[in-house]
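Sequence in, structure out. First:
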Amino acid sequence: MAKPVLYYATLSPPSRAVLLTANLLGLDLELRPVNLLKGEHLTDDFIKMNPQHTIPTLIDEENVVYDSHAICGYLVDKYGEDDKLYPKDLVKRAQVNARLHFDSGHLFARLRFLYEPILYYGSTDCSMDKIAYIQKTYEIMEEMLKEHPYVCGEDSTIADLCCVATITSVDDVAPIDEFKFPKLLAWLKRLSELPNYQKTNQDGADELKKIFKEILANNRTKQK
């Protein structure tokens, strides 16, 4: 059987969430990098494959799956030896889905609100308002983690993997106060101990933050 093909970018938090999931499943993917900054996701061939022209995009046999949250759930359901990462129990799965929507609707949406205009459109707006808007999500995360080590309870799930890929991509621009958010920082430390975490997530997150700062500085220079 051919390996599933993943179109991805290490700079992309959603791509790294899928890589974290595949790594925990022991699943070997055929990786096809896509350069977002060069617009490789906007080619006719890519749009034909994925009309939303987003990464990651998964090709598994004849099936095309896109949106990182959908891909992570699909991979666990199809290739997981058990359902710990994405429980089949109706109530537990609903809770995981709620956290996945929190990532897509709040965490990643606010990161994108800050990053996209600067990375793609020459903006210099890295205002305290935008940073504070991201940090408000830390308050919600702290509450989620108040009584449990992971966002859905005692065990890590794909919701943790998706959320950590996003937060680690913006936590220097929007710093996490150690006195306000000790549970959140402990959660980050816990997830950093996953197998191959540095290569699978942190290296890409650090590179994205570095590029963001470089492009922001360049944009500001151009506007002088």
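Second:
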Amino acid sequence: MRSALRAGARRRDRAPFRGGDRRLDGARAGADAVIAKEGRMPTHDARLTGLVAATLTPFGRDGGIDHDQVAAHAAWLVERGIRVLAPAGTTGEALYLAEREKIELIETVVGAVRGRAAVIAGIWGLTPAEVARLARAAEAAGADAVFLTTPIYYPHSAESLAAWYRHARAATALPLFAYNIPQYAANEIPVPLVAQLVEEGVIAGIKDSTGQADRLTALLEAVGERALVYGASDSFALAARRLGAHGFISALANLFPALFHRIWEGEASAQALVDRVRTATKGYGGIAALKHLLRRHGFDFGGTRLPFSELTDATRAELDRAVEAIGVWQAEAAEAGARPA
């Protein structure tokens, strides 16, 4: 099944934002050459706005990615109205995936959605060379855009961060989104740098996972007319919508897409339910908890990869009871039944 999905991904017709010479290998020179040749990238593409599911990565008993589950879950999300998927990111355990695994994961998701949803593929890698290869592979697979976290571990200057994104931009004709998650990455992208990179045509926008209203507001004021600004961190979804974010990237939308549609429509009661679930899952391992809870929808995403910890039978039972008591499953089922796909 995986090979068929990957072949489908390669055959998928899509309208790229613009052309570009992917052989350019100088970070600044390459980005400048692409921009000079083709002009500024279009912004506010409706395909990439709204609710985005940051997808989980299932593992089989052999420890490898379970591509059948990847495809089934991607199709399930599309059937429930999710129109943008973001594989190979934080929720997808991207730091613990090999380069080839990331590429095959992206190929499977693109093949599974078959053009019914856009795919914004994660291309983070430890080295600039890997980032460039992932960017080219995502484009070849038929992804609609790519997103890239800052470098991690070492603190970097604004100019170093700019070079990181210019390097990625030179590798692909796809729209590139910066991903700001300083609480995990040890680097924050300054708002003036975001504006500079948008002006240069290097990035098409940014995903900001700080959950800070003042920063999201500053980003919208700086680039909101020219680029897409996504909020993230599930407890911040309603606030991001009210502040005017163009989209929201969610982990819990893997399980509760209907409730997140309600949040995006401005429903505070749906946000309150999600807040309680988020608190519960954070207390039981985060990603491991989300994977376990997906069993409620008939999926088997297996465990997580080291160094993440697994749930025990006892903690799984405790988590099930905690989430059941919230009433979120009933709310999701009721909303899903009332909402057209």
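Remark: The chain is about 50% helix and 10% strand.
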